[in-house]
Write a structure and sequence with these properties.
Layout: H1 24-41, H2 50-59, H3 74-79, H4 86-91, H5 104-117, H6 123-128, H7 131-138, H8 143-150, H9 154-163, H10 180-183, E1 201-205, H11 208-212, H12 215-227, E2 232-234, H13 243-248, H14 251-270, E3 273-277, H15 280-293, H16 298-306, E4 307-308, H17 310-319, E5 332-337, H18 340-343, H19 350-355, E6 361-366, H20 383-397, E7 404-407, H21 410-419, E8 426-427, H22 430-438
Parallel strand pairs: 1-2, 1-3, 3-4, 5-6, 5-7, 7-8
Helix pairs in contact: 1-5, 12-22, 14-16, 15-16, 20-21
Length: about 450
């Protein structure tokens, strides 16, 4: 029997519509099988808390084997997993096509889906994963001022901690009533210039975070596209991409959101648009998770093929000889963090490549999980863990006294700045940095 394999890892479709997928006994059998393999390997011990939790459960029972772990304790490992996908993509030697067929993240997804089906998911987790609904309510004029004030008031944060389980120490992003979708001014008037690697026109999928929390990121993307004379539009209608519901295990909600998004996006894909999203988790949802959940859906496949990370698109545009490099302002020292959901897209360090095109700019790249992961680091019971996981990142990002701290994941950027002790260093999204470098 071989240990590891030389072939590229492959992913099997997620069989989530099969009733056996939710059979708790079959799930526990698979969890025991995979836990036993992980226990014998331990290569992923430093990635996240799932693996130390598993190994402690094994090492602290009388048998010193997985079979001695109580089945009701299996969920303790599952709850520590936030589906970053790094174990599958960077560490595990037993992923398919290896015969042991270990896909730890998607096994954790199955366990989360079973937990959700059994009605064991709490209100807090359902609320935090409803990003579109919460965003629409929180960004209403007048309401937005109240929400932002409440989120910064120590007394109300303590109440949120005790009642909802939202960590009082976590610095939360503000909401903006000037939503991106209602204030964006795209320009489709430029001539379409097709490249060897890139479509010549762009459709922007806003994402919940850009739309409701930091619309400036979306506006900066538009300004960059305008500067490069790339015709672009904002997708006419969109829902949440579904990643928060996927992480919750609410796969029926994922399907409902998919049914709202995919027909609209597929139309743009078939009309020759590159579809850009400025949040890596959203890009990954359309590139990987939805195609695995709906492998026979031609529209999902069309959207997958048309989906780009913004910097993936811009760097390919540069390789096509169609990107302007008339940068007017150096960026100095940039500490740049690569989010997990960007790393696992397997496209290389495109954001770094773009930043390094700017003259007199030195990029310090930190390629390690920040520990926040969407809603996980917001929860009271995981806040301290999220800060512990992020500690090496906080230290590395502060090296060389950077002029900017930046991450493609805006939430990770906030988390990192908090972990660094909120220094005077500016936190800016990479798209904002490129806009600044262009002098726009």
């Amino acid at each position: 029997m071989r240990e590891g394999s030389l072939e590229a890892p492959t992913r099997h479709p997620i069989d989530w519509q099969n009733p056996e997928y939710y059979d708790e006994q079959k799930l526990n059998e698979e969890l025991e099988r995979v836990y036993d393999i992980c226990h014998g390997c331990r290569r992923c011990v430093s990635l996240c808390n799932s693996f130390p939790t598993l190994f402690d459960l094994v090492d602290n029972n009388e048998t010193l084997e997985v079979e001695g772990v109580k089945k009701e304790d299996y969920v303790k490992v599952v709850d520590q997993c936030y589906l970053c996908d790094l174990c599958y993509m960077t560490k595990c030697p037993y992923v398919p096509p290896h015969e042991w067929n270990v896909d730890f993240p998607h096994l954790m997804l199955r366990a989360k889906a079973v937990k959700y089906k059994q009605g064991k998911t709490n209100f807090r987790d359902k609320l935090l994963s409803s990003t579109d609904i919460v965003g629409k309510l929180a960004s209403i004029p007048v309401v937005v001022q109240v929400v932002n004030t409440v989120n910064k008031t120590p007394a109300t944060r303590k109440m949120m901690d005790s009642v909802l389980g939202i960590a009082a120490e976590r610095q939360l992003p503000e909401y903006d009533s000037a939503k991106f979708r209602s204030t964006a001014k795209p320009d489709a008037s430029f001539a379409v210039r097709e490249g060897k690697n890139t479509p010549g026109k762009v459709a922007i999928f806003s994402t919940c975070y850009v739309n409701y929390n930091e619309p400036g990121i979306g506006h900066d993307l538009i300004r960059i596209l305008k500067h490069n004379e790339i015709p672009h539009v904002v997708v006419e209608k969109e829902n949440c991409c579904g990643m928060p519901k996927l992480e919750l295990g609410d796969l029926d909600a994922v399907k409902k959101l998919k049914e709202g998004n995919i027909p609209v996006l597929a139309k743009y894909a078939r009309e020759g648009y590159a579809i850009l999203t400025a949040v890596p988790s959203c890009t990954l949802m359309f590139k990987q998770e939805l195609p695995l959940m709906f492998p026979d859906d031609a529209d999902v496949k069309a959207v997958q093929d048309a989906m780009f990370d913004p910097f993936e698109y811009l760097v390919l545009r540069y390789k096509d000889g169609m990107l302007k490099t008339d940068f007017k302002k150096p960026l100095g020292k940039v500490s740049y963090h690569i989010p997990c959901h960007l790393r696992v897209q397997n496209m290389g360090q495109k954001t770094r490549e773009m930043l390094e095109l700017v003259p007199d700019t030195k990029v310090n790249v930190v390629e390690r999980c920040s520990g926040h992961d969407g809603t996980w680091g917001v929860k009271s019971e995981y806040f301290k863990d999220s800060m512990k996981i992020g500690r090496p990142v906080f230290k590395a990002m502060g090296n060389n006294q950077p002029d900017y701290v930046s991450s493609d994941c805006a939430i990770a950027g906030r988390h990192i700045l908090q972990g660094m002790g909120n220094p005077d260093t500016a936190k800016e999204h990479p798209l904002t940095l490129i806009r600044v470098a262009y002098g726009l």
